[in-house]
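Hi support team,

I submitted a single chain yesterday and got back a structure, but I'm not sure I'm reading the token output correctly. Could someone confirm the output below corresponds to the sequence I sent? I've pasted both exactly as they appear in my results page.

Thanks,
R.
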Amino acid sequence: MKEKEEKTEDSKLRSRKFAVWLVWLIIAILVLLVLGVSIVITKQTDESLVELFSSALNDFFVVSAIYLGVNVVQKGAFAIADALTSKYKSEKDEEVE
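Hi R., thanks for writing in. Yes, this is the structure output for that exact sequence:
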């Protein structure tokens, strides 16, 4: 059972959805760093950088919501499929007896 959990965790870390989420996390952090460095160097808050960060952060939250939403729907679909499969198998077994 533990091996199956480890395999599932490993496959989740290699999924495309996780890679997209990770890229957006890195983009959001980089934009925040650029904004911070720009504020420190110029001692002014540039509105275009603030707007860029706001846009990148908004996109990151949208990507995160989609990532989490798809994972929840996927787990629900697998649970329903497993339940239907086990029901079908039990009905088949009852017919055989």
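A quick pointer for reading it: Residues 47-96 form the longest helix (50 residues). Let us know if anything else looks off.

Best,
Support desk
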